[in-house]
Each structure stands twice: as C-alpha cells, then as structure tokens.
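Predict both folds.
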Amino acid sequence: MAKKTAGIHHITSFVSNPQINVDFYAGVLGLRLVKKTINFDAQKVYHLYFGNEVGSPGTAMTFFPSEGARRGNVGGGQVGFTTFVVPNGALTFWEERLVKLGVEFKHAHRFNETFLQFNDKDGLQLEIVEREGGPLSKWAFGGVPADKAIKGFGGAILYSIAPDQTQDTLKNVLGLEKIGEEGGLVRYRSSGDLGNIIDINAEPMAWGIAGAGTVHHIAWRAQNDEDHVNWREHVAQHGFQVTSIIDRQYFHAIYFREHGGILFEVATDTPGFVTDEPFESLGEKLQLPPWLESKRDVVEGNLLPVTVRVLEDDK
C-alpha cells in the first residue's frame, strides 16, 4: 500500500541542564513549553516539549535533559541540523535577536534560500529559514511577537552513513518526493506545509556519537490510530524491524532504524497535549502517566526544578 507522511511530527534530542534548555528554547527562541513530563523509559529524566501555542504536529521540539551528560558528536546516523521556519520577512528580526542575546550564528545558502545557523548551549545544530507556507504561531513570549515567531519545523538535514538507502526510505517508505540536488545535498519534500523539507548528504558520513547536543530520533506524522496501524504494517512490509505500538500519552509511536543509521519514529497527530491540562496552563505542572501518579513525590524529588522566564537581556 502506498503511504505518504505529511512530514515531521517532532524531533527529540539529548541535552544537559534542564533550566539552560528552557532558557534557550523558551527564552531565546520564544517557543512555548507545552508539556513537562518524564522520559517513560528513564524516570529520573525530564521529557520537555516545546512548540507553538499547543505543540501542534510539525512544531514539537522535545528534549531529554540530563544534568552532567557527556557531550556527543554530531555525525552519521543522526539528524545533523534541525530547521525552524519563520514568516517571510522575519529573518532580519531573528538576526538582530540572536545578536542581542549573544548567540553566534552564520549565514548559509542552499537551494536559493538563506539560513541562520547556530548552536544551542549543548552544541545542538539549529537553523532558521523564512518561508511562506504553514500557519503562523499564535504564541508570543518575551521579545518575540507572534507575527515573527517560529511557526514550527521547516525540516531537517539528515546525516546518513548510507545515503542511498536513507533516500530509498524517504521516497519509497515515507512517500517524500525528490525535488533537487545541490552542493552535496539532495532535497526531498513531503505533502505537508510544516516540517516538509528534508535535505540529506549525497555521500556517506562517518558515524556520530550520541550524547548531549545530538538528536535521538526524528518522528514522522500519522493521521490517527487507524492510519498508524497501517503505517506499522507498511514499514514492516519494507523489511524493517519495527516496534510494537507504544502509548506515549500524547501520541502513539512506533520506531525503526533505517539503513543509514537514523532512528525513525512514526507518531500519531492525535490526541495532542491538551488531554491532561488546559490550554491556558500547558507546561506549568509536571504531568505523569497514571501508573506513576502515586509516586509523584519520589519522581519530582529526582528532578531539578525549571522555570519558564524572560531572560534579563530580553527585558
């Protein structure tokens, strides 16, 4: 059966100190902390979700912060750059903002677009590009007004150890369309209007090393639970070892590692992040799955407190 994902659902990365993480993604980039929960597989570690006003699919940047985590090395088998998209005409605002807040950046040019490339405090490689497509964010925070805010993902640059095989997966499993090739990169596009542009190295890259400042996995969108079951069958039919369907509270997930070494997830658009707290207070309270609620005091005691705050240099 032919399947086509709309694009990126979320991207999840390793970082170190959780407050530094919140200060960068909320304080500098102006994203909303929409969910504060834990890594269900490592209960002493937060799982923090940032995005637009509700963390819509295609906007959710998520993190596993672990104080004192060793720094990783970005390379093959990983997402190399996470691309954020802003409205047309907003790139100058972001240049000025990064200068104001002391974030070093450089300009990069590919496929007739200009990107601002920079790192977060853990060395995670990020970039901002302006494009027409995709709904505007309705979230304003600190010095970032809604009309200049990050809309969500523009896409990503994938670093593959076997790019021909990764491209085959993008095309024949995920249903992306090849639309260009330039400067050692090949560009693919999905059907959605956010998280829809994927660039990948044309030549093999050496393996990266997981750790703070690297991406753990990239997730692709499935419409709902019925579609998700079909995605699992579809991935398995292409010869991948795919996990069972896992309940992540805010979406259902399956995982498989494509042959270029990158961990792929397929996640449902539903139910979203307003299932266990109201829109007005998203991200304010630590949310735990029902099976851990009786251990809340213990779980919270293992986590460093975090606060969403406007940075001093932004006041």
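Second protein follows, with its predicted structure tokens after the sequence.
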Amino acid sequence: MDKKQVKKIELGTFIGLTMALCATVRSIPTLASVGWTLISYTVFAVIFFAGPIALISGELSTMLPQEGGPQLWVKTALGNKWGFVVAWLLWVQMFPGMVMVASTLGPLLGNTFGNVELGNNHWFVLGCILVIYWIITILNLKFDMAKVGGNIGVWLGVYIPVLVMVVLGVISFFKVGLVSNGYLGAFSWSKVIPNLENMESFKYLAGISFIFVGIEMSSVYIPRLKDATKNYTKGVFISLIGLVLLNVINALFVADVIPNGKMELSNITQPILIYCDILGLPSIIGNIFSFMVFLGVLLQLSAWVTGPSKTIIQVARDGLLPPKFGFHRENQYGVSRNVVLTQTIVISLFALLYGVMDDVNAVFLTLTNATTIIYSIVYVLIAVAIVKLRKDQPDTLRPYRIGKSGNGLAYLVSAMLIFSIIIVAFATLGTTSVMDAVLVALIAVAMFVIPLIIYHFKNDEWLIDVKKDIDE
C-alpha cells in the first residue's frame, strides 16, 4: 500500500484543513452589521450550531465511513426517501447560495475600475451574475475546469484578503480608536446582549450562522486523523476558535470604521477603501484588492459548478429521478450536462431578484437567509438520524463517539442543534420585512417539498431505464 495513503494527519494539519472549509471574507460585512452584538451571536452560533454539527458529523462519519456523507447517514437512519431529500437539498441550496456568492462580483468589478457606485447598481450586479456564471458553466462543460485554479482561488479569494484586512484594520484602529459614528461606538454590555433596542439585528443571525455551514465536511478526515477519538473534538473546537477570531476581529475593525447605516453587505472592498482613506494610502490598493478577490471568487465559483452536482448524478443513477431528466449521463470530465444546465438556469432565475428588488443589501440578505434555512433542514435530519441510529444500532462500532457511555450527551447535542435552528428560523422570519420573510419561507418550503413529490411518483422502471441507457 502507498505510504501516502496510510500516513496519519497530525492535529495541526487537521485544524488547518477544517478552517479552510469554512474560511471566507464574504460574511464579514454581515457580522459587522450588528455591531457589538456580533460577540453574543457568534458565541451562540458556535455553541449551539457549529459545535453540535461537528460532533454529530464526527460520530456518523466514523460509524458509516462509506462514501455518501449526510445523504448516507440519513438514508441509513430514516430510509431512502429522506436520504434522497438530503441529497436534493444539498444540491438546491447552491441555487440561492451561488447567487449570493456571485453577487459580490459586481461590486468587486466596479471597485477594480474605481467606480464604487457602479457596484451598488442592482442592474449591473444582475448583469455580472448572469454573464459571468453562464461563461463559467460553458467552460465547465467544455474543459476539465476542476483542475484549474482551485487552490489559487482560495488564496486569492480568502487567505490573502483576510490577511490584508486584518493588517489594515489593526493599523487603522491604532490611528483612530473607536469611531463615534460607526456601527460599534462606545462599548457597553447592553450593546453585546440582544435586547428590545437592537431586535432588528436578529435578521442577521442566519447570515452569521452561515459562516460555519460546511463544518461537517471535516469529518471525512477522521479515518486519517492521528488519535482521532481525542484529536477530532479538540481539533474541531480549536478550528472554530480560529474561525471566530478570524471573523470577529475583522468584523469588529470593519464595524468600527464604517459609518452607521452605510454597510454594503456584498461589497467586501468597502472597508479596504475606508482603511486606505484613514491611513492616507493610495486608493489603487483597493483596486488591486478588488481584482484579486474578483479572480478568487471566479475560480471558487468554477469549482462549485460541478462539485455539488456529483451527489445528484449518483441519486439519478440509483433510479430516484426520472430518466428523462438525463441527470445520470456524464461527459468525459465526469460532468452531467443536464444537471449543470438545470442548476445554471435556476440560479439565473434566483438572480432576477436583483432585477425586481433595487436594494442590493436586501437581496443579499434574502439569499443568505434562504441558503441557511435550506441547509438547516439537512442539519435537522442529521440530528434526528443520530438519535435514531443510537436506538436502532446501539452495538455498531463507533470509532468516534459523543460521550463515553450512554446516549444522554448525544441526545443533548442533537437537541441543542435543533434548538438553534428553530431560533435562527424564527429570528430570520420574524425580524425581516413581510415580503422578504414570505420569500425566504416559500423558497425553503418549495425546495423541501419538490423531492417528496418526486419520490412519491418514483417507480422501479426508472432504475431499469437508467441502467439500460448507461449500458448503451
């Protein structure tokens, strides 16, 4: 056997890999928008949302190490129908999610050419999303784009921007201190704890929780992690602390310098330009920063065009989708033309929100909330799955286990996750405008109901026809 295959991952490497899965600069303006309250919201998201997700995923991934992830866990516990629902939701959450990510392209392109106002124009943002995403889609159908620039995209879109933001933020803070008209202002404990005065900040809770979405993917490294039983929990929580520091410190500096009410959620260059103004640095730094992140987002979007579709291809090959969809067919690069075109068409429809709503911030927040709530449905099913498997398969080997004995701790962790999701859902729907709340609810319900309808009409001939088509 190849030595590389059996070499164990050290704790430090695992922490780095876990942080890389969730590291992003896109959530920093959302976090900064709540001022000092971001401290309590982040603590809530870590303890009740990200922590439980990581622990549950750790147990389920070692108990069921075969390929499949959340879909396999839920399928084993709750049956084929709910496994299919999970696979579907993990695919469709990218529809609003990719529009949310792609919506940063307009402001970044505008800032690259020194035209800030252009980046705030909702028609320009819409045009950038449609044109650029369709170009990326066509390239992925014609070439093996999975090999192009994945690591470069992370460096340009995440690591370097985070470092630049921290350095400029620290220096700016030492120069101006706490700015009176910023989102922070003078510190007081009443600003840290959510209360009646800052209730409106609850609408950002889903976006703040979204920072940690995807943390469950680190569980795939458990089989290769050295002393996994001890190091997985330690590594995940050190990673979470690192992510919290990375996001919270940056968000505090951003919240300090941006004037209250002027935050642009999809414009990550906004604080850079303000830092440059404070420090007397040339504005070309903002132009270079924007272009660099623009390229990083492009490369990351390209990697995501085909990634999530892999699961839906497998689901189609298992006979759970009508053969006439053609989702089971792949080209020479392992890409399903019909899956990729379908998702790009739907993403384009979601992007039209930028045409009917002229408030760029409102659209960005609506898309963030919709993505988070769709993903949260998956997390509810995972939480139910661990409880069901503890009852149905108590003697199955669990290399990593929540609690040394008994089921109490596992049930508590599961309940904490479900509790946090209920809070996030009510906070999101109860504090946004009626139209936005209805829109988010409709998106989430529709995406949840569609796979149930498809599964209801499923028949055995689908699998026969799919296998026959593949053989031919």
